[in-house]
Structures are given as structure tokens and as C-alpha cells.
Design brief:
Layout: H1 28-43, H2 52-72, H3 80-93, H4 95-101, H5 107-130
Helix pairs in contact: 2-3, 2-5, 3-4, 4-5
Length: about 140
């Protein structure tokens, strides 16, 4: 066992023929870092793909959370940044909902419209899931 103060120094490894040549062996911390990087490189191909609808649902959850915080603070109107994010989100999703949103920046009204957009997104996610079934091949004829 090596003392702790020498743990970061290169270690000498005996080589047949010439034992005086220092050979670098990574320490335990460096080996751990290298192993984690290797795992990350290989994990890229195994990561589950998240669909656009799921990403939009996550965004709507974040917007609703921010709107609820405004409700808790008893703000009469949504802050401008949050309002513009809601308008962009709802406008990209559905024109009718954008028209329903209008110019009313009250947190209660905006939350209702974002909930309606979530309902549409959940319906879309359900349709994507059910339409992904493959063709069933019969095993036995008869």
C-alpha cells in the first residue's frame, strides 16, 4: 500500500529486462474518471428517445409551475417574460387557444388556457402511443 502523499505520482512498474524505466499507471481517481467517460460515450446510443409531445408536456408543466407561483404571490398580472413564453407556447400549439388567450394576463385565465393546451398534448401523446403498434403476423394458418 502506498502512502497517501505519493498517490498522485506516477508509479513504477517492473518490466522484464529493465526495471528502472518508469511507466505511468493512472491513479484510482483518474481510472474512475476514464471509466465514467467511457460509460457516457457508450450510453449515448442506449438513451431512450423522448418525443416532441413529451418535451412540450414538460414545458407546459414548467409554465404551470411558474403561473402557480404568481398565484401564490397574488400577482394581478403575469410577468412579461412568463407571458411571452406562454404566448409562444400556446401559439405554436393551437391557433384557437391563442385566440382564447387574448391579451388577458391574469394568472387564473392563463392557467386555464395552458391546462387546455395540456389536454390537447395529452390527447396527441395518447394517439402517438396507440398508433405505434405494429402489424400482427399470424403464426399458424388455419
Amino acid at each position: 500500500m502506498q502512502p497517501m502523499e505519493n498517490a498522485a505520482l506516477p508509479q513504477r512498474v517492473g518490466v522484464s529486462g529493465d526495471a528502472a524505466i518508469p511507466r505511468y499507471m493512472p491513479g484510482p481517481l483518474e481510472r474512475t474518471v476514464l471509466e465514467l467517460r467511457r460509460i457516457d460515450r457508450h450510453a449515448v446510443w442506449r438513451r431512450p428517445r423522448v418525443g416532441r409531445t413529451r418535451l412540450l408536456l414538460r414545458e407546459s408543466d414548467a409554465l404551470i409551475d411558474l403561473i402557480e407561483r404568481c398565484r401564490e404571490r397574488e400577482d394581478r398580472l403575469l410577468p412579461t417574460q412568463l407571458w411571452s413564453a406562454v404566448v409562444r407556447f400556446v401559439g405554436a400549439l393551437d391557433g384557437d387557444l391563442r385566440d382564447e388567450l387574448g391579451i388577458n394576463r391574469e394568472p387564473g385565465h392563463v392557467a386555464d388556457v395552458v391546462f387546455a393546451s395540456q389536454r390537447k398534448l395529452l390527447e396527441r401523446a395518447r394517439m402517438e402511443r396507440t398508433s405505434a403498434t405494429g402489424r400482427i403476423i399470424p403464426l399458424f394458418r388455419g
